[in-house]
Amino acid sequence: MMSVRMPRRSGTRLAALLLLALLPLPVLGCGKEGSPPVKGPRPETLPQYRVDRGFTLPDSPTWKKAKRRGHLVVGAKEDQPYMGEKDPATGVYSGFDIEIAKMMSASLGFAPKSVSFRTIASANRETALQNGQIDYYVGTYTINDNRKKLVGFAGPYYMAGQSLLVRAGEKHIKGPRDLDGKRVCSAAGSTPYQRMRDDYPRVELVGYDTYSVCVDNLLTYQVDAVTTDDTILQGFAAKVPNELKVVGAPFSKEPYGIGVPRGDNALRLALDDALAVHERNGDWQKAYDATLGLSGRAATPPPPIDRYPAS
Ligand code: GLU
């Protein structure tokens, strides 16, 4: 059993007000003259990916089921700026992970209109893949050996690292060693949550389903820091740079993979092939520049793809 501490949320009105600050300007309808430019991905800047209409993958049960159904169901995040975000007004998903998912679906023979996204929280990814709720998952999903016992991974397609997000005025927290006795928030079921619990036992760890709730808690002084991948934290900081900052050097390696049902090696290897094609033809870079690159984070080249043998 995981000991996740769930404090009662107080100051809900203030929290709601502060959360509004995280929403993109067009949603609030307040893009008045002189306000900062909207930093989220603009649809016209996003690349189009060539749909491989003749593609078939008869050895993949997942692909065959999706073809029969007529569309793919892809698991993703909906509250991670520049990585995986859902526009509450339109329901449209955007971000670097979403672009990776679209590249993959085009290579598997599915046009953008035949892909539907479903939000799945960190703690529920393995179950969603195991019970067939989704065909594959793209959402800051770290490849590791424990998870490989439950699901398969194509990739990696990006390398992140665990880091810390604090309020802009914070002076004392500069790295994980400064967290003793502090309240630190992360998402249950994530590798950063697990690492905090295992390696920093004097931290008062708080777990929620999503990082946006953690950030809400940080802005309302209910926690002192949020910990997860630098990609996610830099996205939140870029949305409200006067309120939040990322501190210290990353203290882990988080290689992002595409989660697939375990045992569907045909799908896993087809996605590895597709990633290699889109990295070579420039789509990966274009997608990065139009999404995560907008947070100010410089692109690091994708790590080598690990085509591991079937197990
Ligand atoms: N990459 C980490 C993980 O897979 C943290 C981000 C997340 O929770 O999605 O657990």
How are the secondary structure elements laid out?
Blueprint: H1 12-20, H2 25-28, H3 61-69, E1 72-76, E2 79-80, E3 84-86, E4 93-94, H4 96-107, E5 115-119, H5 125-130, E6 136-137, H6 145-148, E7 151-160, E8 162-167, E9 183-187, H7 191-199, E10 204-208, H8 211-219, E11 225-229, H9 230-239, E12 244-247, E13 254-261, H10 265-280, H11 283-290
Parallel strand pairs: 1-5, 1-6, 9-10, 9-11
Antiparallel strand pairs: 2-3, 3-4, 7-13, 8-11, 8-12
Helix pairs in contact: 4-10, 4-11
The site of glutamic acid has 12 residues, from helix 7 and strand 11.
- Total DSSP helices: 11
CATH class of the largest domain: Alpha Beta
The percent range for helix content is: 25-40%
- The CATH architecture term of the largest domain is 3-Layer(aba) Sandwich
What's the β-strand tally? 13
* Envelope shape: globular
Mean of pLDDT: 89
Question: What is the domain tally?
Answer: 2
Please characterize this protein's 3D structure.
By secondary structure, the chain is an alpha/beta fold. The chain has two domains: 43-160 and 255-295, Periplasmic binding protein-like II (D-Maltodextrin-Binding Protein, domain 2), CATH 3.40.190; 162-252, D-Maltodextrin-Binding Protein, domain 2, CATH 3.40.190. Helices cover 31% and strands 20% of the residues. It has helices at residues 12-20, 25-28, 61-69, 96-107, 125-130, 145-148, 191-199, 211-219, 230-239, 265-280, 283-290, and strands at 72-76, 79-80, 84-86, 93-94, 115-119, 136-137, 151-160, 162-167, 183-187, 204-208, 225-229, 244-247, 254-261. Strands 10-9-11-8-12 form a five-stranded mixed β-sheet, with helices on both faces. Strands 5-1-6 form a three-stranded parallel β-sheet. Helix 4 (96-107) crosses helix 10 (265-280). The two termini are 28 Å apart. The model is unreliable at 1-18 and 23-38 (pLDDT under 50). The structure holds glutamic acid. Glutamic acid is lined by residues 122, 139-142, 187, 190-192, 228-229, 254. Glutamic acid binds next to helix 7 and strand 11.
